[in-house]
Amino acid sequence: MKKYLAKSKLKSVYVENNKAIKVFDKNYNKSDVLYEALNTARVEDAGVNIPKLLEVAVTDGKWSITSEYVEGPTLTQLIEKYPDKADDYIKKMVEYQISFQKKSNPLLLVLKDKMNRQINSIEQLDNSVKYELLTRLNSMKNHTKLCHGDYCPDNIIVSADAKGNIEEITAVDWVHATQGNASADIANTFLLLKLQFGDKSDIPEKYISTFCELTNTKRSYVNEWLPLVAAARLTKNKEEEKELLEQWINVVDFQ
Question: For the segment 146-165, what is each residue's pLDDT rounded down to a tens digit?
C-alpha cells in the first residue's frame, strides 16, 4: 500500500515495499531527473552513508527515481516536538555535515563554476554588484569537498529514541551536490535556516557558530560566502525570499 510523504505539482514521493519512490510530472525535464539520479549515485560513490539509489524508470510517461526508504522524522519535525533539545540537534546536524564534507568525488560539478553561471544569469542585479560578486567568487579558495547544496532540516532524516535523542542521522535530496568549499555549503545552510526559522530564532546563529567552533574556522571566512550563496539562491525566483536575499547580497557589509 502506498504511503505518500510529499506531493506537489511537479513531483510526489511515496513509500511502497520499504522503498521511497519519487514520481515526476510528465512535463518534468528528463535530463533533470537523470541528473538527480546521477548526482545521488556519485554521492554514494564518494562513500557517504545515504539511502541508496535503486532504480530509475518511466511508467505511463512519468519518470521516477526509487531509493531505499529510511524511516524516521525529519529534523524539522524533531525540533518542533522537542524544542528544548534544539542545541543538541543542531550540533548533530553540523557533525554529520562535517563528516560528509570530508568526502569528495571529482565527477561532481564544481561549485564555483555553478555559482558563476547562476550569478551571471541574474538579470535584476546591477552590473556593478554582479561584478563585485564574481570578483569575490573568483578570489575564493578552490576546494573539492562534498557540498550538499540544500542541506536543511527538511532534508535530514533522523532516528531518535523515546526521549527524542538522536541515534542516527542521514540526508536526502542530493540533486544540488557539488565539489567545492565547505564554508560555502555552511553559508548556504545558514541562509536556508534564516529563511525557515526567521530572525527571531537563534538556530541559524547556533548552527554557524557550532561549525566554526568544531572546525576552527573563522566566522569572517564563512561570512564572505553569504552574499554569493544569496545571489545564487535568487535564481530560484521565489518572491517570498527576494527581500531577505537582496539584503545578504550587499557585499559592502562583508568586507
Answer: 999 999 999 999 999 999 99
Determine which helix (DSSP H) or strand (DSSP E) holds 45, and give its type and residue range: helix 30-45
Boundary-marking domain end, from 48, 68, 88: 68
Cell 547556533 -> residue: 206
Give the span between the Cα atoms of 128 and 166, in whole angstroms.
46
Q: How far apart are CA 55 and CA 52, in angstroms?
A: 10
- Closest listed residue to residue 34, CA positions, set 139, 242, 175: 175
Q: How confident is the model at residue 254 (pLDDT cuts 50, 70, 90)?
A: very low
Q: Which domain holds residue 41?
A: 3-68
The type of residue at 138 is N
Residues 38 and 148 in one domain: no
Q: Which helix (H) or strand (E) is 3 found in, with range?
A: strand 3-7
Angle (nearest 5°) at CA 96 between 90 and 98: 100
Query: Do 46 and 137 share a domain, yes or no?
Result: no
Residues 6+ apart with CB under 8 A from 182: 98, 101, 143, 145, 147, 215
pTM above 0.85, yes or no: yes
Look up the CATH number of the domain holding residue 238.
3.90.1200.10
Residue where one domain finishes, among candidates 35, 68, 101: 68
Q: Give the C-alpha separation, 235 to 250, whole Å.
A: 16
